[in-house]
Design goal:
2 copies of one chain form a homodimer. Chain A has 469 residues and is of the alpha+beta class. Helix content of chain A is 35%, strand content 20%. The longest helix of chain A is centred in the C-terminal third of the chain and has 20 residues. The relative contact order of chain A is 0.12.
Chain lengths: 469, 469
């Protein structure tokens, strides 16, 4: 992708923007613009004309009004942990970065809801509500730096999705700035609300293309009182994969049910020296949580399934330090894989849970045909896998194989009743594949909805809406 | 409301429609048209020109294409249990009734999903999946006759909403016929899916105004292995109301947490002779469910809260027959209230859970000022109350007091951070109040989205989109 080095603002516009957010929060120098030219997706990079860091809804609305008048594109972003190029400012307009809007405005214990600004870091929010005996389940892998606004814009998933669902399941309402600078409220502080169309859920996962969020009303749960983790090693990936639906069919609904394949485990062992046994083909990580008595009961069910699963070895974490050791392997997965090659192309194809064994077989076949190293880990309980292609973006011949392999991964997932993306979004990276999943009528409907919200096409230009072949 | 007795089809159109669905499923005689002129909402009645009962997606699509060409309005309906007038064919067009499309097409045990036609009766679906060890939580009061398509169109709630959420939380995807007769697929069979805008959730709760559903992909859970019900009597409504948030703050998430007030309890006792103690001001019905050990633990927490709650008496159902007796009181509520006056105006204002005591105080004040008998029951855990005004639609003077009281109920709920409707929808009955909750920009956005899906305004005309004052 061509890097636009010199988009720039007219001096007049720059002055007006600086007046709204304050001169020190209107960044136009090359270093700052370069810092906001990319996100966590390899291969995408584009300089914005300016980076704006507003501090309030009013400032966001004023900036948007000014951009709308000037016909200038706006790429919203939080911490830039996006994995589909969704926060790369490809049109050379402005980036609005929400990291200064980081207040937890209220936590309502009786109603179990919170109102937050979009720039609150996910893990900070976890800590804040857990200190009050509450629980916010969505926990994307990037939680220690990702922001809640970005999580909502992408409808981020995480490790607790099987039992608790994804970000959108915890969004009750939004305050949002539309493309003309007007401010709307969607949803409510109530748990139930059928007044009007569900704009809240339309906006969740809309990848910054419909509106900019300035407040989030989030639903919380009581904090689970106990949890128990299990680790199971397999010398055969098929057996591990089959254990996933078997566990759920047995009536257990684990909070977490993760899988890691041979390549991922090798990378983790080289990286973190956890003392994993050699010759492993797969590992499952399972965690049940809830009331202590419930955890005991579900743990017994997990043990019963694992003992018949053909696992070469399995263990329960009876204490917190063993749990930490078990979890560190999973948390290290992406970092460990990233160390092995200059780039990791991290996909997130998702299939119905029962198709996990077939999806693993498809990944293996694709890796072998294209002679690529693909490490796969992910949220097996949700059917959401992260086949991670280890590669070097400078090697053109290899990249053409990677591209062909990615296209085949998508086709394989779709053929199994799956989807292009479970949690990372379409963004730039999957935009040209959208029509493989959605038909022309649906893509057209989406574009017309986009036009209702953003007739000039200023919000996150170039993302998520696909191409009609 | 004026009753349109004589809308009719041209003989040519009637013949074409009869050819699509079969002559016996194209009803145009006055008796049939009268049977589809109303739903469960008192005071609304309008004859359709014809009633069509298609048997397949193809038939629905062909009927819609023909209606689109003729510019004829379409009111979709299932069993007609709607409580906001949403299935009353006010424009005199055709009713498309989905009750013949009643097949459960598949239940996937590994993936815990099902695909069904929209006319499947909710309770039949409960029985079918429970027989396979699975569980479909949404259980609207009308479940024994209501259809799943209608539940999705209204985003129906029910008695298990506190722990399990509402219908939309179990809808993964839809097959839908658009206003021009084209057929789209939204969502997927996967638990996670961020490909494209969330059209599935936009359509859930859209009250038949955006598209007609022909297939539903539903998410299921493992069937809870155990449950325990509790009944608590109070001589003071305030104490009962305060117990609701207290229970949840204690860390229990009951499946069910219902309240009934004095007037409702009196009506139930007169109707069902359950032997309720005299002089009660309120009753709470609580049910916890899950793994047996979890139920034991949560039951102990409920008992601890109830013993400090100021309840005059409380009991746990230790066996299924006691549970049945406890539940029969709740199930009889609306029927019992209905017997006392010719009409019951059933509202469903919803407030944040912590505002339940304040909402009860507001209802009492409104009842007293307008000299009306209002029995209130509902899903207290969700903040979703059903103040039920007992009245006689023939008494014009009384009806004007009822109308003023309803408007004040809405204002009171909104002032407490609540919403007009928690689960019954806007339909006709709340259409003229919509702008009290939603501002002009949001109402305009909704109308523009409607126009994208249905440019001619043929789908469920006159419903849900409000008036701009």
């Amino acid at each position: 992708m061509a890097v636009q080095r010199e988009p720039s603002l007219s001096p007049g516009l720059r002055q007006q923007l600086a007046k709204i957010v304050g001169a020190e929060y209107c960044l136009t120098d090359p270093v700052a613009r370069e810092s906001y030219a990319y996100d966590s997706t390899p291969g995408y990079r584009a300089f914005p004309a300016a980076v704006l860091l507003p501090a309030s809804t009013e400032e966001v609305a004023e900036v948007v009004r000014l951009c709308a008048e000037a016909g200038l594109g706006i790429t919203p972003r939080g911490a830039g942990t996006n994995l589909s190029g969704g926060t790369v400012p490809v049109d050379g307009g402005v980036v609005i970065c929400f990291t200064r809007m980081q207040k937890i405005l209220s936590v309502d214990l009786a109603n179990q809801t919170a109102v937050v600004e979009p720039g609150v870091v996910t893990a900070h929010f976890h800590q804040a509500v857990e200190a009050q005996g509450l629980f916010f389940p969505p926990d994307p892998g990037s939680q220690s730096v990702s922001t809640l606004g970005g999580n909502v814009a992408e409808n981020a998933g995480g490790l607790r999705g099987l039992k608790y669902g994804v970000t959108r399941d915890y969004v009750l309402g939004l305050e949002a700035v539309l493309a003309d600078g007007s401010v709307i409220q969607t949803g409510s502080q109530t748990l139930k609300n059928v007044t009007g169309y569900n704009l809240t859920q339309l906006l969740c996962g809309s990848e910054g293309t419909l509106a900019l969020f300035t407040k989030l009303i989030l639903r919380l749960l009581p904090r689970p009182a106990a949890r128990r983790s299990f680790l199971a090693y397999f010398t055969d990936i098929e057996r591990a994969a089959v254990t996933v639906p078997t566990l759920v069919e047995a009536g257990v609904l684990p909070a977490t049910l993760e899988i890691m394949d041979r390549i991922t485990l090798q990378a983790v062992e080289e990286f973190a020296h956890l003392g994993l046994p050699p010759g492993l083909a797969a590992m499952l990580l399972i965690e049940v949580d809830g009331q202590p008595a419930q955890v005991e009961a579900e743990a017994a069910m997990v043990e019963a399934v694992l003992s018949r699963s053909g696992a070469s070895e399995w263990q329960a974490a009876r204490d917190e330090s063993t749990r930490e050791r078990i979890w560190s392997a999973r948390r290290a997965a992406l970092a460990a894989l990233s160390r092995r090659r200059p780039a990791t192309i991290l996909e997130d194809v998702t299939v119905p849970r029962g198709q996990i064994p077939a999806m693993f077989a498809a990944i293996e076949s694709i890796a072998s045909r294209y002679q690529l190293e693909i490490g796969t880990f992910g949220h097996a309980g949700d059917g959401n896998l992260h086949p991670t292609i280890l590669c070097d973006l400078r090697d053109q011949e290899q990249i053409s194989r990677v591209e062909a392999a990615v296209a085949e991964l998508f086709d394989a997932a779709l053929a199994l009743g799956g989807v292009l993306s479970g949690e990372h979004g379409i963004g730039l990276a999957k935009n040209r594949f959208l029509h493989r999943q959605l038909d022309r009528t649906v893509i057209t409907l989406q574009r017309e909805i986009k036009r209702v919200f953003d007739p000039q096409g200023l919000l996150n230009p170039g993302k998520a809406l696909g191409v009609i072949p």
